């Protein structure tokens, strides 16, 4: 079977430039988070966790491929063109997904926020009037539900583990949370995609409720840090994204058209 | 500096994983893995042993909860029943009208 046949969303071509742009946002979020998690492979605390993180990274890469393929079809670019041949300002990922891995607690705090958000997003996106986006979301939501469970389990264990693990989890949540607010900001693009896109602000109540329940069980407090002025949707990025892209793109750029 | 996992306190306990491939089948030993507790053992087992739809159900058992036979006393313990044909119910003929015995 052709690998691309496993991707959700089939042969669609985005109806408008706005739909393609929206697909790019979602694809970039998944792509960058996947790349970040890939760094953990062979570095996770135990072999079993290595496998778990690798599986999550591969799921996200699948979502990214589906979204990017759909976005690129609009102007005849391939998913590889979009992943490997765009410059930093052309990426549209939110800052949360760009946050450095830090220690394991920081990766899990980022993963908790990301997967709770993605679960709510994909659940809603299944009702999109755009069939391709709805199909990708329907496939992704089942996988993200597991990612969310994995992150919740680790949050509970790190927060309720040793003094050191609890200290690190609290610090990690404090470091990651300023970048959560950007996920729920309604950009002008959303106004032009009524019925196609999910309005980000509508996801916040459900996100807050899930996080509140997890934090209550983990005896964590919601950080009170102000929201960052993150501008990932406009191509303004966190300082570490450039390094990540350089590593991700180096092979494709040194050997254009390479296959393996 | 010590190697991670070198001391017992640092390493996660070992779990044995049993996977049932489908309804009506029994759980079959699939392998073992490390996990901090039973909940995580189940999740790790799902990742390691059932990613390609191999199973409909997973059991995990702490490896030290399993009592095993002694591999050194294999001979006596598993003596073949060869030559003890009287132990096999092969001398009986099925009665007529009992097709599914």
Overall description:
The complex is a heterodimer of chains A (260) and B (101). Helix content of chain A is 60%, strand content 0%. By secondary structure, chain A is an all-alpha fold. In chain A, helix 2 runs antiparallel to helix 6 (131-159) and helix 5 runs antiparallel to helix 6 (131-159). Chain B is α+β, with helices and mostly antiparallel strands. Chain B has helices at residues 38-49, 74-77, and strands at residues 14-20, 27-34, 57-62. A 3-stranded antiparallel β-sheet of chain B has the order 2-1-3, covered by helices on one side. In chain B, a hairpin with a 6-residue loop joins strand 1 (14-20) and strand 2. The A-B interface holds A 45-49, 51-52, 55, 149-150, 153, 157 and B 4-5, 12, 33-37, 39-40, 43-44, 47-48, 51.
Q: Strand-residue fraction of chain A?
A: under 5%
How much helix is in the residues of chain B? 10-25%
Number of helices of chain A: 10
Biggest sheet: strand arrangement of chain B: 2-1-3
Please state the overall shape of chain B, judged from the principal axes of the Cα atoms.
Answer: flat
* Unreliable stretches covering 5 or more consecutive residues of chain B: none
Rounded mean pLDDT score of chain A: 94
Q: Helicity level of chain A, as a percent range?
A: 55-70%
Mean pLDDT of chain B: 80
């Amino acid at each position: 079977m052709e690998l691309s046949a496993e991707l959700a969303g089939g042969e669609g071509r985005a109806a408008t430039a706005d739909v393609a742009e929206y697909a790019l946002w979602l694809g970039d979020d998944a792509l960058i988070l996947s790349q970040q998690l890939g760094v953990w492979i062979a570095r996770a605390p135990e072999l079993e966790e290595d496998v778990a993180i690798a599986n999550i990274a591969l799921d996200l890469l699948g979502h990214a491929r589906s979204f990017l393929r759909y976005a690129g079809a609009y102007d005849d670019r391939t998913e590889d063109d979009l992943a490997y041949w765009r410059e930093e300002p052309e990426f549209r990922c939110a800052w949360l997904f760009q946050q450095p891995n830090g220690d394991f607690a920081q990766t899990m705090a980022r993963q908790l926020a990301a997967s709770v958000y993605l679960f709510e997003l994909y659940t809603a996106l299944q009702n999109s009037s755009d069939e391709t986006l709805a199909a990708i979301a329907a496939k992704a939501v089942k996988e993200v539900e597991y990612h969310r469970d994995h992150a919740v389990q680790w949050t509970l264990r790190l927060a309720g583990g040793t003094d050191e693990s609890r200290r690190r989890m609290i610090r990690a949540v404090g470091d990651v949370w300023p970048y959560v607010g950007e996920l729920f900001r309604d950009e002008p693009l959303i106004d032009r995609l009524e019925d196609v896109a999910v309005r980000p602000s509508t996801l916040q109540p459900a996100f807050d409720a899930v996080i509140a329940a997890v934090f209550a069980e983990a005896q964590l407090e919601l950080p009170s840090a102000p929201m960052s002025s993150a501008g990932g949707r406009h191509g303004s990025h966190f300082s570490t994204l450039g390094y990540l892209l350089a590593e991700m793109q180096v092979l494709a750029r040194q050997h254009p058209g390479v296959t393996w | 500096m010590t190697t991670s996992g070198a001391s017992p306190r640092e390493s996660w306990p070992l779990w044995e994983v049993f996977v049932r491939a489908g309804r009506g089948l029994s759980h079959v030993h699939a392998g073992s893995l490390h996990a901090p507790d039973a909940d995580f053992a189940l999740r790790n087992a799902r990742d390691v042993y059932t990613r390609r739809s191999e199973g409909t159900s997973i059991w995990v058992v702490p490896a030290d909860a399993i009592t095993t036979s002694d591999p050194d006393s294999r001979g006596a313990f598993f003596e073949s029943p060869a030559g003890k044909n009287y132990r096999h119910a092969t001398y009986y003929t099925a009665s007529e009208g009992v097709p599914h015995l």
